[in-house]
Structures are given as structure tokens and as C-alpha cells.
């Protein structure tokens, strides 16, 4: 049963957003929390020198490096190794890869540049067709691809072909993906996976390893916040008083996500200040779980607090899933859900 808790309450299950190709292209900019991301505001962890090293390389990639010293009377000017047209940031969750990617976007003086997740670019191809997408993006100075996915061979092949055509026309590329930290060797060499899967484009990329600890987990206890029914009602009501909050049964949201293309998930949460999910349960169906991961990514991009009852959201994915081929995606989603439930305190 759906419970109305306030005047500003909406239901995700009643939203059926439509997004045009033009709107999708216009939305290819960094998420709101990275509007002000710069190299200067990136705080490299001294315990992990690879963070500062990656930052300095990206400064140079964005054309912000120090000018090359001129030759003296009796010495030659030092030679710099030319940068490749693409950089790939390889590292675990929460080490600042997206911040650095957004910093590249903001620092590169370009008339045409785009920033989006892998799924947003593949959705653009799905909406406009391959040729039209190439025609629209051709001539862009920079393409930033966050969370490059290697799970679907078809999507990977399409993106590799697309990137190859854009590089040939002079476009610079910057991409990220995730590697679980300290995962007993699993995924520790995601860069090798990336280069193997995009073999036709591998020579165009310089890989930058970024080690570190997930910053989202540094200030929290590692578990998602679970509310009782009274606390949940209060959180929804408080958010609804100043704006809009969603209030939905978790299972109904999961069913609704199957009816909405992932490229439109961002529109599901338009105008909201809080997401409410009642009676969270463990997901055992892979398709449902992956759709929920895509939804969590959009909620995290929008930095919307999440209020939830039922099963703790860090336990929403069944154990067998965490041991399967999509482990990286699920761990990333858990990291983000933990942070979003803790952000209720600041809402």
C-alpha cells in the first residue's frame, strides 16, 4: 500500500520520463557535485604517491603543465614524451577518479567537450543510431567517459569503434573504471582488461594507476543506515516541507525500473531532494540488481540522500552476486548507498 506522508511527496513509480537524443547530448556534463572540481581542489593522499603522480600527468594532458624550459647556450632543451590522445584512470572505489576526470573537463579550454558515464554514451547510440551519434560528436575536443564498462561485449565493441572514429578526427579521450581495492588479486589489473577489450584502441591510451582508500568509507562505519517506520516518515516529511521527496515500496520501484530505459533514470529523480525506499529486500535476480545499480549511480550523481526501511542497503545484493562477474558494480553501488544513507544527517 502506498502511504502519502506530505504535500511534497511524489512516487517514482508514477513517473514515465521521455528523453530525446538532443536532451541526452545536452546533459553530457559533469554531475552537480563536480561542478567545481579542479586539480587544485583534489586532495591527493600522501600515503599513496600514485594519486599525485596521476594528477600531474592529467594537468599536462589538459594543457595546464609548466612550459618546457628553453635550451641554454651549452645545453639542449629537455625533451618531453608526447601525450597520447587518451588517458585511462585505473583504480578502486572512492580514490577521486571522477573528480580528476571532471577536473580535466573543466581545465581543458575547448569549445566542444562532453562528460558522461559509459551507459549514457551507449544510450545515446541507442536513441540516435550509431552514424548520427558519430556525426554529432565528431569534432569534439574532449570526451570524458566515467565508469567504462567491459561487461557487455556488444556495447564495448560499439564504444571502441566510436572512440576510434573520434580520435581520428582529433578528439581527446579520458576514461575511468573501478577496481576493488585489496581484492586478493581480483581486478587489480583492470587496465589490462580494458586494453585487451578495446584492443583496436589500446595504443591511443596511457594508463594511470591510482591507489588509495575509498573516501566515502573514511568517515562512516561501513554499513548503510536503516530507519524504523517513524524515522522514515519523519525524514520524508521533513524533505517534503522544503521541496519534494519520493516515497515508494522498494519492490515496486524495482519493477518500475524494468519499464524505464536506464538512460531515463536521471529524469525519474528530477526535482527531488530525497529518495524514500520502504521495505528493502535482498535482490536475487541479476537483471533487477543491475538495473538498481544503474539507478543508484544516477542518485549518487545527483547527491540525493536515501531514507530506507527493511534490509540494510549494503546487504541488498545476494551473496552469490557479490561473488560473480558483476562484483565490481555491486561493490561500487554498496559504497555509494552507504554514503547516501549517511548523508541524511546533513539533509
Report what the structure shows.
It comes from Microbacterium bandirmense. Keywords: ATP-binding, Cell cycle, Cell division, Nucleotide-binding. This is Cell division protein ZapE. Pfam families: AFG1_ATPase. With 347 residues, the protein is of the alpha/beta class. It folds into two domains: 9-18 and 217-346, Rossmann fold (3-Layer(aba) Sandwich); 46-67 and 79-212, P-loop containing nucleotide triphosphate hydrolases (Rossmann fold, 3-Layer(aba) Sandwich). The protein has 13 helices and nine strands. The chain has helices at 21-26, 49-61, 97-107, 118-128, 130-137, 153-168, 190-197, 229-242, 250-257, 265-268, 286-301, 319-322, 327-342, and strands spanning 9-10, 86-91, 113-117, 142-146, 172-178, 205-210, 245-249, 274-280, 306-310. Strands 3-4-5-2-6 form a five-stranded parallel sheet, sandwiched between helices. It has a four-stranded parallel sheet with strand order 1-7-8-9. Helix 11 links the parallel strand 8 and strand 9 (306-310). Mean pLDDT is 84; it is low at 1-6, 67-71 and 180-189.
Amino acid at each position: 500500500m502506498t502511504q502519502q506522508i506530505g504535500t511534497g511527496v511524489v512516487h517514482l513509480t508514477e513517473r514515465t520520463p521521455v528523453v530525446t537524443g538532443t536532451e541526452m547530448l545536452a546533459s553530457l556534463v559533469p554531475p552537480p557535485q563536480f561542478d567545481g572540481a579542479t586539480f587544485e581542489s583534489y586532495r591527493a593522499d600522501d600515503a599513496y604517491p600514485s594519486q599525485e603522480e596521476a594528477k600531474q600527468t592529467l594537468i599536462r594532458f589538459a594543457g595546464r603543465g609548466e612550459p618546457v624550459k628553453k635550451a641554454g647556450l651549452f645545453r639542449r632543451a629537455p625533451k618531453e614524451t608526447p601525450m597520447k590522445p587518451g588517458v585511462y584512470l585505473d583504480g578502486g572505489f572512492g580514490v577521486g577518479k571522477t573528480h580528476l576526470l571532471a577536473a580535466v573537463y573543466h581545465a581543458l579550454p575547448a569549445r566542444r567537450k562532453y562528460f558522461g558515464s559509459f551507459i549514457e554514451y551507449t544510450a545515446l547510440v541507442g536513441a540516435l543510431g550509431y552514424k548520427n551519434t558519430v556525426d554529432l560528436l565528431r569534432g569534439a575536443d574532449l570526451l570524458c567517459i566515467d565508469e567504462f564498462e567491459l561487461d557487455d561485449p556488444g556495447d564495448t565493441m560499439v564504444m571502441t569503434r566510436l572512440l576510434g572514429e573520434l580520435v581520428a578526427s582529433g578528439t581527446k579521450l579520458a576514461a575511468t573504471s573501478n577496481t576493488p581495492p585489496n581484492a586478493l588479486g581480483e581486478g587489480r589489473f583492470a587496465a589490462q582488461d580494458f586494453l585487451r577489450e578495446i584492443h583496436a584502441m589500446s595504443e591511443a591510451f596511457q594508463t594511470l594507476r591510482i591507489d588509495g582508500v575509498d573516501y566515502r568509507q573514511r568517515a562512516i562505519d561501513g554499513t548503510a543506515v536503516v530507519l524504523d517506520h517513524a524515522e522514515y516518515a519523519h525524514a520524508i516529511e521533513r524533505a517534503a516541507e522544503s521541496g519534494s521527496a519520493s516515497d515508494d515500496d522498494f519492490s515496486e520501484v524495482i519493477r518500475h525500473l524494468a519499464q524505464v530505459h536506464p538512460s531515463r533514470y536521471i529524469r525519474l529523480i528530477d526535482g527531488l531532494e530525497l529518495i524514500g525506499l520502504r521495505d528493502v529486500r535482498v535482490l536475487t535476480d541479476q537483471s533487477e540488481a543491475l538495473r538498481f545499480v544503474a539507478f543508484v549511480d544516477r542518485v549518487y550523481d545527483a547527491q540525493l540522500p536515501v531514507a530506507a526501511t527493511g534490509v540494510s542497503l549494503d546487504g541488498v545484493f545476494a551473496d552469490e552476486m557479490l561473488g560473480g562477474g558483476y562484483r565490481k558494480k555491486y561493490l561500487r553501488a554498496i559504497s555509494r548507498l552507504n554514503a547516501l544513507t549517511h548523508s541524511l544527517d546533513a539533509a
